[in-house]
């Protein structure tokens, strides 16, 4: 009996010490909080590292503990951390609404610190300010902007003897000529469902927002719908491009990664994507020359608009352990030094004017469109909930695999839009 | 050390279990239940309590972030019945589970019978056939995603051997994608089933084969009347593992197709992930997870009852 009691006591002690060890792990960090240590979670893998180094150099004695992850994983992680009070001081936040890590979604329950009184907040251009704010207060430090267009591989174009099209009619002829030469015009990686929207956005910019720049506000006011608007024209044009042979065979079986390889190695003449793809194409073909141009959607080039929008930025945790240092970091990101470093590494364009940034020549046309106010935000950034976009993404895959029709998909998007936030 | 012989004796009666007397002289009996207490306490805190709390959220409209939420009763469950994506995902889940269970175990059994023979290369074959099972599923899934691409190795190989007409859009065709996923899983885990069947086959005493031979049983008769009943425990383990694995399948589907094209390969697990982490509908996705748990529980319990009855009948 004595042995049994001893064993029982040992078992309880073991369990107790295990539990104590577990709880000790959680508290271990809190005892060592240092005013010179900043915690940070970012999705900008590959570029944030340089910015952190520059920040540490500008602020000797400061340490930054950071983690980076992909968008999906990050959104899952940050929501759990915020709701359990373990989120870092500074974190990646997307502009506007429409995804689980977006400004509206995180600011509404009070998880983000109001950054309206920071010097840069007043300088943000209106299009970017609208998606950095929630209820007229600025919460997200947006440092860069991106655009969507047709990225051409110059070597492949030279080989084919073709030149980038300037109108919609020329685009279709370009596609036919390219297909006839055995090198399709554009690579399309629709297996990754987020890719399906890119061509559509490029077409929607001109066909929907060209005639009516206030279309998004009209949607919000309930005065317009997807199914009864030029969105149907954009969808039809997307499918016409597919039927004309603008894309390589089997886009639904082709991943984003595989589509980059096709465009980088000249198996297609280009790819319709965001400017971020240029750096990836150069990674696969360092000797290649790539240029981003507006995708023609009508026969009148003066009507062309390009989708260009704020990229993900940074927000400060309302319960940050080290608010001063967090603000210092965000202000560094928004300074000409931090911003130029970030966008140069990412291949984008700065969100603030007058940072002295010289854009990569491949992005010259996008830069001009932004300066001439001929851009519209990415369509999903002001949609009331993430479901509208998800319905569109899976719907486009269904249209490409003959499981659905444009009309059905646009009506389903209207239903999700009307469901509100 | 004293060995216990648990094989049936010639008369078919197992010898009475003898107690083992160690050198110290104390008798070894069944360990006291509280030896399991530390593990049980941990299990309760790490698994049971969080799971029970999780189930509560299935009856709320929590978005996974906002501390304010309200109870919505059974709304999430009724919404599921009206949600064509959820109904389709349940159907895909069951289809994949049944297909994997049948094909993977059928192939596993054939392979086990093959490598249980006396052919010279049997050990090398065993290693090769089992090798895919030791690789992380997400790695093999990404590998196959490339192999099954329109310009991937599978289509290139078909083209090279003159079977260009067999080339397919393996993961982009909604009618084929689900079966491509099944194929990848069977490729990876048929060797795993094989090993379990092989262990069962090798525990069959040689005398029984000899007796069957003397009685004039052919290969089919020998398999059906001698090997199959003795493999009953291996069947139970294999079928249980593959049906549970098939129902809760996530990694491979997510990596190969992401549930697409459209929703053509969405399973309950991929839908739970998307609803929770992409759409922020935690309450609804937890309700889906509760349904998944119930399906796993019913399928595994039902299967266990039937298979153990078969085991008893066979012994």
TrEMBL record, chain A:
PROSITE patterns xref list: PROKAR_LIPOPROTEIN
SUPFAM superfamilies listed in its UniProt record: Periplasmic binding protein-like II
Tell me where the transmembrane regions lie: none
Q: Does the keyword Signal apply?
A: yes
Q: Quick check: keyword Signal in the entry?
A: yes
Where is the secretion signal located?
1-20
**Matching Pfam families:** SBP_bac_1 (PF01547)
Give the record's keywords alphabetically.
Answer: Signal
Q: What is this protein called?
A: Raffinose/stachyose/melibiose transport system substrate-binding protein
Recorded source organism is: Kribbella caucasensis
From which lineage does this chain's organism come?
Bacteria, Bacillati, Actinomycetota, Actinomycetes, Propionibacteriales
UniProtKB/TrEMBL annotation, chain B:
Protein origin, superkingdom: Bacteria
Chain ranges passing through the membrane:
33-59, 89-112, 124-144, 176-199, 230-250, 282-307
* Cited SUPFAM superfamilies: MetI-like
Where the record annotates domain ABC transmembrane type-1, the positions are: 90-303
Q: Name one GO biological process term.
A: transmembrane transport
What cellular-component terms does GO give this entry?
A: plasma membrane
Cellular localization per UniProt: Cell membrane
Tell me the protein's name: Raffinose/stachyose/melibiose transport system permease protein
